[in-house]
Design brief:
The complex is a heterotrimer of chains A (about 200), B (about 550) and C (about 100). Chain A is mainly alpha-helical. Chain A is about 80% helix and about 0% strand. In chain A, helix 3 packs antiparallel against helix 7. The N terminus and C terminus of chain B are likely disordered. Classes of the chains: A mainly alpha (about 200), B mainly alpha (about 550), C mainly alpha (about 100).
């Protein structure tokens, strides 16, 4: 009988997976609130939204979309690699995923700095003088991509932890809940972007 | 089923790697975590109740009595924030859910014990932040717990901190809900199919889904208000094209389901008490289980009934009013089933049953008055009056609050292994019940007559109602104090309790009082239907 | 545990993941090109529909839902439906004011 204050560690991968999906549901609703705001204001200011979406760089947006889609594939593959006991491949795939995530972040950094140069940020005198729909579009743009970028950062940390765990053998073909659930998280980050992309960049 | 006698007797006496207070603060034992939530809630309840008392003292006469208008606004704001986010939303689920869910389904703990402890820490952090908001920065927030824009975006008081506190508390709620869903899905004892599970766990299941799916919306909404205050983001600012009503929509999309988070576990608790003290199976087990889910689902779509007078569209008002009436139906089904459970039973009017019966009475007053507020025509008269204040206090305090008292009186012997004084408990109940009704019922009357809510001052014709109400507040506090004294004193000095003083048939009554560390010597195998009241042969194992 | 389901331990092949990626890239191309061709108000609907298909592919293949148990799939579907309903009911106000 276990005599520690914590309990006999029971490993329930199915339970952990359900737990992770539940957490993903909360993330969907978190971003969902922003999507609702977007829907309301796009409906009200459709002309302004069409117009100001031209200010966004659809090329970078598309590029970032491709980057995230590929990273979803690489992280999914890394799980298969772990399940097939291919430690080296798993780690390489995780590294590629992280690399792609960093590319995404760098792009985002450039996108935002470019806007800041033109004083296009919430509350700036330039933005305050725009038509109302455009002001709201920028607010949504920054809040949605900002929150998303925060989640990308968290994902990078999570994936890095996975590299260490795969390396040390803690995550392996018999026990791969951590990487499976981290993969789910990463796919969510991708999912959100799949919706964000047309709503923000292709609103033209 | 007996105690092995070796893991240091029971969960209260257990000493692991850490002793004393540290042993509690580092414990991932769901029972200890449940109690830590309870003690925290008790402290904050005393603070918030005291704030409520201050409000009542202020309102005993028109004009300034003990505080000025600005202070009054701050007091009702923090009273609401503490009561709603720190006490009533976590309340039953975090305390009794944590303590009894695993035991009632035959498990040794929840699915994620460390996450459970983490939830508690997040809760404490959020609660402290909420209280701190009173003392730092621009002064005590005065927006009301509902944080309506535009005022919450403009008020120079310390709204930010309160918003952040609510955000942090939301995380605790989400993680608890997540934990409970996985626990119920994965950790039921062998043989315990969904429809052999007792009804308190069913109610926790429905509650947990709301916690997971609704709370994030308030999270993002609070962040949006923070963005309004700091970045001038404009979503809710008409000058920038935004819509203040959008805040109200978003706010109530969470906060209405939140009231079902409050009441569903309460209904679950009384659903356990009625069969035990009638020594009879629950009437309509299936209906109660499904109605819990129905309330959770339909309750998601009634939020607009908080906004009838704001200018939303005609069809919107029609739609939300209609659904508000629909959502009352499953609650009514439950009331019918509880009463039918008692009918023909062998009634033992112990304190838990007394509280459960008064729960029905008070909850129904709250429920019926809710319908009059939910009807479009009468809403115009009652919106933003003390009629609404009385309504929600009957539902939340008379409902969830009395259910909490029922729960503590029901499970006290199991938790502490001691019995309290029934006599003192009954007297306390009587004082509490009288005080409660004196405090809140007059608010219905003056509310219809036109007394607005959240008003510091009022016209002389309302004073009689206010005086009665204030007297009621003092009587209520007296009743609460006696109740607390009874429980706290007998925690150590009470008669030693047996494993099953109430002759209950759910799993918690089959293990020792207090329970051993890992609840069960051996996980039971369930074969009987739930609430089978056979003497001795409990068709299990 | 309640259900002693031995996890079938389905392992998705690298090839399948690659094929899904190709599909996703094609769909991305389509949605970008569609907006070039101005369908006006229609463009929103098309772009969003394409996005929905992409999301479905990610959910089903990358996130393994195709091989998960029914309850989980119902939960995921339910969540999306719930959110959609919230949006619809909010619009009963905004569209009909």
């Amino acid at each position: 009988m276990n005599t520690t204050a914590t309990h006999s560690e029971h490993y329930d991968p199915e339970g952990s997976k359900i737990g992770m999906w539940l957490f993903l549901f909360t993330e969907l609703f978190l971003f969902g609130g922003l999507f609702l705001v977007y829907a309301v204001f796009r409906n009200k200011y459709s002309a302004d939204f069409h117009h100001v979406a031209h200010e966004l760089n659809a090329f970078i947006g598309t590029f970032n979309t491709v980057v995230l889609l590929v990273s979803s594939m690489t992280v999914a593959m890394s799980i298969t690699a772990v399940q097939k006991n291919n430690k080296r491949l798993a780690i390489n795939l995780l590294l590629i995923t992280i690399m792609l995530a960093l590319v995404f972040m760098v792009n985002k950094y450039f996108e935002w700095s470019y806007k800041f140069e033109y004083k296009l940020y919430p509350g700036s005198p330039v933005v305050m003088n725009l038509p109302q729909g455009e002001i709201l579009f920028y607010g949504l743009y920054y809040m949605m991509t900002g929150l998303h970028a925060l989640h990308v950062l968290i994902g990078i940390v999570l994936l890095t932890i996975n590299i260490f765990k795969v390396r040390s053998g803690k995550v392996n073909a018999e026990r791969y809940s951590l990487i499976e659930n981290s993969g789910l998280y990463w796919h969510l980050v991708d999912l959100i972007w799949i919706f964000l992309f047309p709503l923000l960049y292709l609103a033209t | 089923m007996d105690n092995t006698g070796n893991i240091q007797d029971n969960y209260l006496k257990y000493r692991g790697r850490f002793k004393g207070l540290m042993g509690w603060l580092t414990s991932t034992d769901h029972k200890r975590i449940g109690l830590m939530y309870m003690y925290a809630i008790m402290v904050f309840f005393i603070i918030a109740a005291f704030l409520g008392l201050l409000m009542r003292i202020e309102k005993i006469a028109p004009g300034q009595t003990i505080m000025d208008a600005q202070t009054y606004n701050g007091v009702f704001t923090i009273h609401g924030i503490i009561m709603i986010f720190i006490i009533v939303i976590p309340g039953l689920a975090a305390v009794f859910g944590n303590f009894f869910l695993p035991i009632m389904i035959g498990a040794k703990d929840v699915a994620f014990p460390r996450l459970n402890l983490f939830s508690w820490y997040i809760y404490i952090a959020g609660a402290i932040m909420g209280v701190l908001s009173q003392f730092i920065g621009g002064g005590s927030p005065d927006t009301g717990w509902t944080f309506y824009v535009p005022y919450s975006a403009e008020s120079s008081t310390n709204v930010m901190f309160a918003l952040l506190a609510a955000f942090v508390l939301g995380f605790s709620s989400i993680l608890t809900g997540l934990n409970f869903i996985v626990t119920i899905h994965r950790m039921r004892a062998p043989g315990m199919t969904w429809f052999k599970m007792p009804l308190f766990p069913w109610s926790l299941y429905a509650t947990a889904w709301i916690q997971v799916l609704a709370t994030p919306i308030i999270g993002i909404t609070l962040l949006m208000v923070i963005a309004e205050r700091t970045l001038n983001i404009g979503f809710f600012d008409p000058a920038l094209g935004g819509d203040p009503l959008l805040f109200q929509h978003l706010f109530w999309i969470y906060s209405h389901p939140a009231v079902y988070v409050m009441i569903l576990p309460a209904m679950g608790v009384v659903t356990e008490i009625f069969p035990t003290f009638s020594q009879k199976p629950v009437f309509g087990y299936g209906a109660i289980a499904i109605s819990s889910l129905a309330i959770a689902l339909v309750g998601y779509f009634v939020w607009g009934h908080h906004m009838f007078t704001t200018g939303i569209s005609y069809w919107s008002r029609w739609f939300f009013s209609f659904l508000t009436f629909i959502v009352a139906v499953p609650s009514a089904i439950k009331v019918f089933n509880w009463i039918s459970t008692m009918y023909g039973g062998s009634i033992d009017l112990k304190p838990p049953l007394l509280y459960a019966i008064s729960f029905i009475f008070l909850f129904m007053i709250g429920g019926f008055t809710g319908l009059t507020i939910g009807a479009l025509a009468t809403n115009v008269q009652t919106h933003d009056t003390t009629f609404v204040v009385a309504h929600f206090h009957y539902i939340i305090f008379g409902g969830m609050g009395f259910a909490f008292f029922a729960a503590i009186h029901y499970w006290f012997p199991k938790i502490y292994g001691r019995m309290y004084s029934n006599r003192l408990a009954n007297i306390a109940w009587g004082i509490l019940f009288v005080g409660f009704n004196l405090l809140y019922f007059p608010l219905f009357v003056i509310g219809i007559q036109g007394m607005p809510r959240r008003y510091f001052d009022y016209l002389p014709q309302f004073q009689t109602g206010h005086v009665i109400s204030t007297i009621g507040a003092f009587i209520l506090i007296a009743g609460l104090s006696l109740m607390l004294y009874n429980l706290i004193y007998h925690r150590r000095k009470g008669e030693v309790a047996t494993a099953n003083p109430w002759k209950g048939v759910t799993l918690e009554w089959l293990i020792p009082s207090p329970p051993p560390l890992e609840n069960f010597d051996q996980i039971p195998v369930i074969t009987a239907k739930p609430y089978t009241f056979e003497p001795a042969e409990e068709a299990k194992q | 545990m309640i259900v002693m389901e031995e996890k079938e331990k389905h392992i998705t092949s690298y090839g399948l993941f690659a094929k899904v990626l190709v599909a996703l890239l094609i769909l991305t191309t389509i949605s970008v090109l569609i907006t070039e061709i101005h369908f006006g108000a229609f463009s929103v609907a098309v772009a969003l529909s394409v996005a929905c298909i992409k999301v479905a592919l990610v959910l089903i293949y990358f996130m393994h839902l195709k091989w998960e148990n029914t309850f989980l799939r119902l939960m995921v579907a339910g969540v999306f439906v719930l959110f959609a309903l919230v949006v619809v009911f909010t619009f009963i106000d905004y569209l009909l004011r």
